Amino acid sequence: MHSCDRSYNVPTWLLRMIPIIIPLHPSGGRFGKNEELRYALRSLERHFTEPFKLVIVGRYLPAWLKGAELIECRHGLKSALKLAAEHYPEGFFWVYDDNVLLADRTAEEMKITPGKRKWGDPETGWSRDLESIRTRLEGEGIEPIDYSRPHGPYWFDKAMVDQGFEDWPGMKGKFPWESWILSKWKWPWISGVTKQLYGDFSPPAEHHVYLNYNEAGTTVELREWLHARFPLASRFEREVPKVSTSGVEVHTIRFGDAWWISACGDSLDDWCRRHGHGLRVWDKAAIHPRYPTAKFCVLDMLESFLAGTNQWCFYVDADVYVTDDAPTFPDMPGIRGMVIRPDQPSGATPGFPKFCEKHFPEQAGMANGWKYRNAGVWVCDRQAAAEMLRVAEEPYINAWQEQHQWNWWLVRAAAAGMAVTTLPDEWNRFGLEQGQAHFWHLAGKNKAEMFRKVRESLGILEPLCATIDGAESLEALVEACAIEGGDMMSIPEEEAESHPRLNAALTVIPEIDNLCNGAIGHLLRCLEFGKWQRLIIRSTPGAQPGRRRPRRTGQPFPYDVEHAGILTGSPLRRVALDGKTYLVYER
């Protein structure tokens, strides 16, 4: 530990309930659903030995979070820190959600901030900003300590924050102001206590007090390690009920990191939470190897349902988006048996009769006149579940995943007397269909365009407009969106992550259809925390660039540029010009 010239004691009232303030980005983090925050909170509850209150500064509280105060902030980190200091002028811990506490710490111990005298090479814009801080501190005769790279946690009060920004008014966004503020106060620091993961996973050592990771470090191995280290939910987690209080239990399959899994999964979780429906999420580990595709585990869901006491089993595909105002389980007169909608208005699917003739030639006639059903959302009572399991015989055949065989089992169960009731379309409305719905099914390959249309119909996303501010050409669009000092530029994809002009630009038009994950993240972070006011990107609706992997992180790509804006909550306008679509993000 290193000494400082300043003596500071935590006020008595703070020792009773110390504010821990966490800035939260609206994107939900690399894991999605703010999972980083979940593990940060579990670590604090386990290892921080003082009573504390949780404060989030950001646009909203995650749906699963409870017992936290929100300081609403729609701007970057600089504004967030200033607001935090105004709300808690006597002092608070400033903690990032990608920082995990690994050992017991009191408030006084945690005030001793991780830092180091050795400064890294200025290879990025952020590190060059850090280098400028060192130069200025040395010019003022102050010993420069790098508090920024270890990533905290930090103790600040209003006097510290005010002085730091008054002395350097040009600091903006993700500028590493921690080193500037704390070095000027000669804050106590300690080195060698933070394990940082900026690539492949390796476990922390016994002497490590903190664990910090960036996007490149958010590997599957890290996530598994965090869950094993902190398996118990904190008091701040509002868990989706596993035991139903409504007589309805909901089942879904969910694995992978596609953007729509997170978006749809969050909406289903919220619906179950609102109405007290127990939810079981089946992941990849739960899929029996005898099944040709994952969705055949609906048979295991039915068995699990019958092993309990609930009245209804409600199945929902992973690509179903539930609206915020969706009511509880549909109360329909005479509802019984298997409740499921036709796949098409006519109920006809040409491939199904051939499937029956090929695999069940002696019984195929049973399917004549059958109205083919969609297996994305269905509800059944206990009698129907038992009947479906009775007729669900092997071999299991992959044809439209389980849907052809599911319909064959429905045919047989209905012939044996099982009631089949039509589920109203609003409980399984396909994404490109007209009409209102509670459950929107993004079935098919073009989930991007369907999700956009659904959100547009809900008033979440502005519709495609012909012009913006009267602009009828790309040049006019740039002129309408530009502000004084703005810059229009084109950048090749391979330079998108590290282009030196990005931090100075106010308007950017990459002349490419889609960017890799790291580039999109960098562009949106520049918009959120940097100097830009607007960002314009050309987009190809429905493009699926997600199968590509960025060179640096090796992580799968979760969304295209349009969904990056949707998931970060950035205000977005879509503009059609010269047969192309441009996405205009505004701060």
Automatic annotation (TrEMBL):
| SUPFAM superfamilies noted in UniProt | Nucleotide-diphospho-sugar transferases
UniProt xrefs under InterPro entries:
Nucleotide-diphossugar_trans
Name this protein carries in UniProt: Uncharacterized protein
Lineage of origin: Bacteria, Pseudomonadati, Verrucomicrobiota, Verrucomicrobiia, Verrucomicrobiales
